[in-house]
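Query structure, 692 tokens:
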């Protein structure tokens, strides 16, 4: 069925594609190729200058190119093209684009908007990644018009780019011109304020050596520096003179270096030495009163007197030099002290002077920078080269670009496949009907415990009593699966439920109970469907009698011994529902229910609960949380709309152990040959023959 629907959907999509292709008007596409550089050549400069004027940083190249693409798609550029080619209100243009002229009397703005929208729909702009070649395409029913519009977009794009540069340069010149006037006025005012303050404060600045603004100093500071240097030199001279005076003013002036270094002293000492030598020679030969000895002794005395006289003169000279050095030092230190006071006063006045000076320097720097930039802008205005070049101009195409039958068929095929897949997916999601055993695991993600063939209601009881019937075999297979449904084998307590009524859960509960009881295990079957009980009618021996049961137990009106009923099977006991209570959910959710299960667990090997359906009721999920495992009965090929999946979701939300599903009322003859051969006419039958 799904295959047929898929084929019909795909065939319909292909047929629609063929019809749509035949009905379309041929359209022609013309393309212009542009090269968009992120740099433009520098026009001004030397002839051999190959330096490029960067328009944008290399790291932002991709962003710059995408910006240019957006400009190509902008409304402003479309308006320029429409205005240049006079397309607003042009009847031939509207006809070529497959449009009718605006009805009535539209306004100028409405006509312009219609034209721009029409151009935008037919124009295409493409810029491949890692490329600077952009293509501008235009599609219409007339080849010449397509080429004309594609070329117009390219030329207007270049013109608008140059116009933006010129407008930007003109704006910059006007702006800098105004700023230049303000800077000139500020500079003049700051220079006048500086000079006026220097004149009022009596400040004279020396700017001859290091320039007018770099390390300049005042006359007072220069004089202080010179006097301080002279005072240091005078102090040095005074210290030296004082040292000479101390040496020469001692007890023996003749030992002073100044005396010894005097030429007269040296000459007198030499002459005295000669006379002393001659005197000693005469004394060796004559007495002291000898005339020659006396004469020589007199000459030595004269020389000694001369030496003392010269030494005193030298000593007086050194003293005069020391006094002069001391006076000079004191005088210079006094002048330095006076200049220091004047310099400190001048420094106080220089604080305001330096503030005014820095303001003047700042204004001069700003003015010179603005002046230089203004000159550059005036020189470069209007001569900037474009960074956009046309590589291929558009020509009128010969073959139409659309409609393309092959492309339309591919699109239709893809759309048909998607639509078919969507149909199948929605059908699968909305329909949870189980038709074959594989659907239990495929659609519901449940283990398949058994498959029960279809039988008429009148034949069901007879078939269940016949151990060789297909239904008995199905329930025997279910019993075997339950014996190994958990790691510990058969669960102690088991709940049998279904999503909707009349799916065979009561029959399945009874069949499971009888099958386990035949193995010699004690089993008790509880009918906990306190709304529409069926177990008392399913067992013919009860004759529909249901006076006492589960409701009597849960309300405390009877004991387990009072409600336990025997069956044809020795090891099977049954507790029917009893009278229908007004509030079944409260009884099943009470502590009495848990106590009842605990008490029965001590007496029987297996407890089976025949529960009401899950959908719409709280009874089944409530009791499912009290048992060790849940068996879900699923009727084959029953129409559902999500009820089964909803029921399973409710059970799983309680975090219970779902043992698996049992597929009931399965008709193998209506489900395909494989199941027909196994469950239908070719089913493996019992035979009385002895041969294999």
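Result returned for the query:
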């Amino acid at each position: 069925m799904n295959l047929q629907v898929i084929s019909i959907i795909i065939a319909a999509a292909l047929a629609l594609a063929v019809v749509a292709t035949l009905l379309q008007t041929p359209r022609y596409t013309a393309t212009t190729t542009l090269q968009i550089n992120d740099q433009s050549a520098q026009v001004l400069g030397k002839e051999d200058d190959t330096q490029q004027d960067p328009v944008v940083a290399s790291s932002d190249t991709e962003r710059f190119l995408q910006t240019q693409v957006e400009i190509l798609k902008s409304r402003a550029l479309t308006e320029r093209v429409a205005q240049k080619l006079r397309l607003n209100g042009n009847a031939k243009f509207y006809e070529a684009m497959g449009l009718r002229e605006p009805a009535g009397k539209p306004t100028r703005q409405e006509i312009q908007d219609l034209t721009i929208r029409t151009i935008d729909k037919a124009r295409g702009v493409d810029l491949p990644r890692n490329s600077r070649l952009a293509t501008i395409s235009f599609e219409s029913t007339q080849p010449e018009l397509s080429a004309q519009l594609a070329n117009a977009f390219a030329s207007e794009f270049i013109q608008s780019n140059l116009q933006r540069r010129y407008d930007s340069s003109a704006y910059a010149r006007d702006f800098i011109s105004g700023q230049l006037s303000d800077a000139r006025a500020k500079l003049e005012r700051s220079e006048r304020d500086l000079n006026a303050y220097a004149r009022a404060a009596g400040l004279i600045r020396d700017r001859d050596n290091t320039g007018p603004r770099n390390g300049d100093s005042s006359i007072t500071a220069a004089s202080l520096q010179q006097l301080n240097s002279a005072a240091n030199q005078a102090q040095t001279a005074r210290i030296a003179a004082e040292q000479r005076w101390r040496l020469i003013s001692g007890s023996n002036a003749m030992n002073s270096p100044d005396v010894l270094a005097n030429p007269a002293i040296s000459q007198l000492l030499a002459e005295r030495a000669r006379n002393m030598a001659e005197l000693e020679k005469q004394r060796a030969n004559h007495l002291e009163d000898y005339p020659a000895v006396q004469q020589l002794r007199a000459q030595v005395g004269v020389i000694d007197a001369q030496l003392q006289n010269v030494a005193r003169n030298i000593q007086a000279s050194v003293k005069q030099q020391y006094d002069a050095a001391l006076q000079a030092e004191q005088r210079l230190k006094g002048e330095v002290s006076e200049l220091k006071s004047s310099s400190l006063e001048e420094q106080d006045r220089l604080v305001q002077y330096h503030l005014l000076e820095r303001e003047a320097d700042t204004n001069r720097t700003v003015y010179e920078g603005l002046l230089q930039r203004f000159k550059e802008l005036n020189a470069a205005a209007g001569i900037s080269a474009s960074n956009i070049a046309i590589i291929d101009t558009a020509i009128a195409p010969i073959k139409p670009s659309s409609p393309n039958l092959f492309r339309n068929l591919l699109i239709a095929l893809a759309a048909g496949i998607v639509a078919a897949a969507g149909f199948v997916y929605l059908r699968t999601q909305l329909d949870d009907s189980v038709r074959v055993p594989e659907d239990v695991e495929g659609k519901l993600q449940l283990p398949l415990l058994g498959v029960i063939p279809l039988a008429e209601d009148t034949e069901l009881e007879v078939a269940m009593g016949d151990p060789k019937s297909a239904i008995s075999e199905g329930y025997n297979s279910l019993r075997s699966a339950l014996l190994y449904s958990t790691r510990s084998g058969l669960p102690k307590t088991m709940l049998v439920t279904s999503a909707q009524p009349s799916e065979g859960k009561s029959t399945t509960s009874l069949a499971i109970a009888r099958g386990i009881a035949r193995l010699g295990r004690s089993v008790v079957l509880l009918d906990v469907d306190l709304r529409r009980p069926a177990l008392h009618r399913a067992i013919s021996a009860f004759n529909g009698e249901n006076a006492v049961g589960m409701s009597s137990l849960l309300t405390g009106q009877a004991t387990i011994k009072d409600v336990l009923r025997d069956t044809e099977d020795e090891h099977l006991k049954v507790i029917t529902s009893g009278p229908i209570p007004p509030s079944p959910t409260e009884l099943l959710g009470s502590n009495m229910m848990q106590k009842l299960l605990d008490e029965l667990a001590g007496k029987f090997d297996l407890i089976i609960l025949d529960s009401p359906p899950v959908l719409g009721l709280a009874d089944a999920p409530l009791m499912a949380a009290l048992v060790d495992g849940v068996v879900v009965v699923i009727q084959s090929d029953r129409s559902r709309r999500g009820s089964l999946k909803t029921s399973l979701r409710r059970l799983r939300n309680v975090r219970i152990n779902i043992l698996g599903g049992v597929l009931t009322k399965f008709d193998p003859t209506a489900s395909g040959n494989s199941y027909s051969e196994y469950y239908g006419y070719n089913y493996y039958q019992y035979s009385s023959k002895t041969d294999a």
